[in-house]
Structures are given as structure tokens and as C-alpha cells.
Known about the structure:
Helices cover about 25% and strands about 15% of the residues. By secondary structure, the protein is of the alpha+beta class. The strands form 4 sheets. Strands 4-5-7-6 form a 4-stranded antiparallel sheet. The chain is globular and about 75 Å long. This is Protein RGF1 INDUCIBLE TRANSCRIPTION FACTOR 1. It comes from Cardamine amara subsp. amara. Pfam families: PLATZ.
Amino acid sequence: MKPAWIDALYAEKFFVGCSYHETAKKNERNVCCLDCCISLCPHCVPSHRFHRLLQIRRYVYHDVVRLEDLQKLIDCSNVQAYTINSAKVVFIKKRPQNRQFKGAGNYCTSCDRSLQEPFIHCSLGCKVDFVMKRYRDLTPFLMPCHTLTLGPDYIIPQDLLTDDDMAAYETPRSTVVDGDESMSWSSASSDNNNARAAAAYAATTTHVVRKKRTGFCFCAKSANSYKQVSEDPDDISTCISRRKGIPQRAPLC
């Protein structure tokens, strides 16, 4: 009538230290294994890599899950979602709110929390309770989900991954620098690019004179036609070309 992983989302404590990895860094439990019905930290994830894993997030001191992930497990219609970092999330547990009176608008069926139209549930827990009280069976609202993996933004300690795990959680090569060899290759490539840029700059002998707050002045187009720039402000002003669109500040009073 009700899957065990829903009870695990209610009962398990998240964002607390993992008892199995007390001395490890980043040992907060922020993943729920839906097959084992336990909370996991990043160090526990590799041993559950073939299970259905649901990442738990934190918003306003409450546990939330991404709507995109939760919709793969259960029908989330009529549950109000909130936007965090351009992603919609849903609260897991109830958030009771005491009200002396109700005005116009929608309210949660369990918590009496004010909601936007057309939503009638403020969390996953509120919808589950509503369905169980009215229909006494949650099966029609469950989705067939055999695989559920963590998103690409979830970080797993690299030293705990085997070769097979590294292939599964492979990081794009363009974003990784390995050792001195890659650094030296990058440095040599940078030097070659700088040499080409210097040669191209030398070939084009355009001389640029920069004057503070006056833009750029192109006084010659080649080495043969190069002319010495006079220090006379009148001569310099003739070759100054101000950039368009720069606002002029008013003098301070």
C-alpha cells in the first residue's frame, strides 16, 4: 500500500555526520538509497552505485528533492514546487502552520499552509497522507522506476572509486589537469601562442598611442608611414578617436 522508501524519507536523518566515516571530510548524509532505505554520505555511495539513489537537498532548513527526480517515483501533481538555482524542488515533510483564520486562496490539505493556485499540497508527505486517507492505497500514484542515478553535480571522492567506478563517474578530460606533464604541455602551448601573437603584432606595425580618459589614437598604419606624435595637446586631439557609448560623468559638487 505504501512503499518502504517513503517511510525512509521521513524516518532517516539527513545532513548529519555519517557514523561509518566519522573522520572523513564531507561526510554529510545527503543521499537516500531507495533499495536499502537508508541515508548515505558521499563515501558510502560507491558501494550502492547499482541501487536507486535519490539526492536530498537543503532549503530553508528543510529537506527537499528535485521535482524532476521525484516525478520518476510518484505522481507529484497538485504539490507546490519551489525554484532553487533554476531547478524546481519539493519539500519532503509536512510544514505545519498555525492560523487563527483563513482568507481567500488555496490551503494545504494537511498543514493549512497558504499555497498558490492550483496546488493543494505543500509537501510530499501532505499528499501521501491525503491519498492514504481518501483512497487507502498509494499504488495508482506510483511510477515504475527501476533505475535512478545521481545528477552530474554530485561530487564523489575520487580516492574511493575503482576503475569501473571511474568509468561510470568519468569527468570530462578537458576540465582535468594531471601532473606536471599536462602543466608543461599547457605552458609550451601558451608560449607558442604568445610567439605567434608577437609575430602577428610585429607584422602589423600600427602604432597605438593611449591617453588617459581620451580613448585610442591610431597615428600610423605602417612602419614606412610612421610619424612621431607631438606632445602638443592640439596635435594629439586631432588623432584621438573617442569610443562611442561611454557616459560622461558630471563633476562632483
